[in-house]
Amino acid sequence: MSQVDFPNWMVEIQARVEKTLSRCLPGADIAPARLHAAMRYSVLGGGKRVRPLLAFAAGEVASADPARVEHAACAVELIHAYSLVHDDLPCMDDDSVRRGKPTTHMEYDEATALLVGDSLQSLAFAVLAEARLTDEPAAQFEMLALLARASGSRGMAGGQAIDFAAVGQQLTIEELEHMHIHKTGALIRAAVLLGASCGRLPPAEREALDRFGKCTGLLFQIVDDILDAEADTATLGKTAGKDATQNKPTYVSILGVTRAREMANELRAQALAALDPIGSRARRLAELSHYIVARQF
Amino acid sequence: MSQVDFPNWMVEIQARVEKTLSRCLPGADIAPARLHAAMRYSVLGGGKRVRPLLAFAAGEVASADPARVEHAACAVELIHAYSLVHDDLPCMDDDSVRRGKPTTHMEYDEATALLVGDSLQSLAFAVLAEARLTDEPAAQFEMLALLARASGSRGMAGGQAIDFAAVGQQLTIEELEHMHIHKTGALIRAAVLLGASCGRLPPAEREALDRFGKCTGLLFQIVDDILDAEADTATLGKTAGKDATQNKPTYVSILGVTRAREMANELRAQALAALDPIGSRARRLAELSHYIVARQF
Questions:
Q1: Residues on chain A touching B148 (C-beta within 8 angstroms)
Q2: Residue B20 in contact with residue B70, Cβ under 8 Å?
Q3: CATH number for B27
Q4: Are the Cβ atoms of B157 and A119 closer than 8 angstroms?
Q5: Which domain holds residue B141?
Q6: Does B35 touch chain A (CB under 8 A)?
Q7: Has this prediction a pTM greater than 0.90?
Q8: Residue B210 in domain
Q9: Considering the domain boundaries, does residue B297 fall inside one?
Q10: Residue A28 in contact with residue A88, Cβ under 8 Å?
Q11: What does the sequence similarity comment in the record state about its family (chains A, B) (predicted)?
């Protein structure tokens, strides 16, 4: 396990992910050049890379070769990037700023943004199919199926459909949780499990990681809701206060900020408790759950 | 090889594909129900299933088990269906009729249509990852990568980007061909190769199928262009004459109908010539190339 401290580890992994993503993405000089430039614009040079960080941290738990984990990490990040591009489109959230830059359809055009998202999704599966990620092919097929299910109508895209239908609605906290388990949680859980799948883990530890992944997915969303309510656009790198403007149910709108913060702390405690049986190999995952909360505290 | 005549074979395969697609798609009663209903609306009950037919016909050449081919065939059709849903969106072709029914965004809404397409793409890869399609895992990883590449920015989605950029432009016949090799050709070629990959083929026969797939992809597009120029909306099941209205370069606009028909006949002859070394096992593929042309002659 790496001995560097957390901030340095994070910077190191982020740089590695950036490099791998850049290598996976077709060059902006390859035809169709405008589409490829837009794909690179949408993926590179921004983002905290939380999902790749989780994949690498889970890979450490399973003693996975980082050269394998980087492909899984990038596949998840490509799915995440495509979802942001499509989510920002006028027919969805209609957002103009993302990661401190104009959103893809603002910088290019809507048709290009649509095709960027579509192409990034295909690329994610190409990356996951082309690399050798495990010694057992059956495990790699499971990884491909896991990412596909986490991305689709019973995962992330389904969560977005629930989110879209929820605008202006009064949701219970259970309904909100159901939405976020899909919209944000599915891909975060997939990031953790895919990273772990590149190595070997006894079933009990895999289950522990799965519990950690589920708590972390919700934790991440609660913190996002608090940030949207409290931070400004410059700090956030995306339009702040959008949830309230769009009349979207959030943890803050349902629980209030104080209770939402308490819930974040509770979820962090649950996430850490899930890691207990694993011990020190889970250090990076524990640090990441602190990092996710510390984005705002 | 099946002894039934071509029309009966086609009806039999189409029914089988419909059944498999229906089984792959989440039920309209499963949450998020509206998204799942829209996915089923977009995929089921229409379409000639040309790509699945090609996959089954190529599977026969390679003595593949049809129970394996049906998964590959459905994965390709799911990609095709997603591309139609996204292609019909207002920011792309802005079409209101498809397969004789309102397009998905007309029947539902734009956000749902966007998520339908996204979810169908994920589902295609889930189907291809979850079924056992070959005896050798390496071959199945290649199939997954092949479908991902054929769908993405250097395949179908890239072709749509070129198409979108070409509106109102004067293209040479070579540029038009380049566009269609990506937009339509990549997925048709993938259908043929994926069907064949479910069985076993000597490399020379696989190359012959690849040549057949490339010719057939272009053939299909030329016939499509002729139909768009000559048929009416009722016959076509989609808005006729759109290419001219949208000022899109087509084989008809560049070559005229007579020369486009001649070119279709030439391509069909090339497609059949590619099958020569294979002999009678390629009967269904040959019949399919006739069928593709006969749509209009």
A1: 122-123, 125-126, 129
A2: yes
A3: 1.10.600.10
A4: yes
A5: 6-292
A6: yes
A7: yes
A8: yes
A9: no
A10: no
A11: Belongs to the FPP/GGPP synthase family.
